[in-house]
Amino acid sequence: MKSLILSLFFYWAMITAVLTQDSKPGGPVHPGQPSNCIAWHTVKQGDDCETVPRRYYITKKEFLAWNPTVSKDCLTNFWLKYAYCVRVDGASAIYTTAKSTTTSNSRKYPVNQGKHNFNHKNALN
């Protein structure tokens, strides 16, 4: 059930991202944006250089590369009602990332060696 809910949430987020992007600039643009830009976001009150890329499943690095007049700290040339490129033709905006994990031999709770005490009921909750 959790898997289904997570899948539905993911698809809803993707649909929302696709529906909120514009195929043409919805406001003035800065010079130097890519000619192969296929999706635009017009800045609204409350937007910043962290929330806009996250909304379109791109990295801040991609956002800044596609909008070269915007400074790295986004204090310069990130303006209300201006349009910014959020997807270019030929670039996938969805990436999978591997999360690094560390393991340790020290355990907080004792574990029965050689026995499997897996409770299937609790694993589903």
TrEMBL record:
Signal peptide as annotated in the record: 1-20
InterPro entries with a match to the protein in the record: LysM, LysM1-like, LysM_dom_sf
Region (Disordered), start-end ranges: 105-125
Matching SUPFAM superfamilies: LysM domain
GO terms for MF: chitin binding
UniProt KW keywords: Chitin-binding, Signal, Virulence
CDD domains listed in its UniProt record: LysM (cd00118)
Keyword Membrane applies: no
Domain of life where this protein originates: Eukaryota
Biased composition (Polar residues): 114-125
Domain LysM stretches: 39-86
Annotated family: Belongs to the secreted LysM effector family.
UniProt name for this protein: LysM domain-containing protein
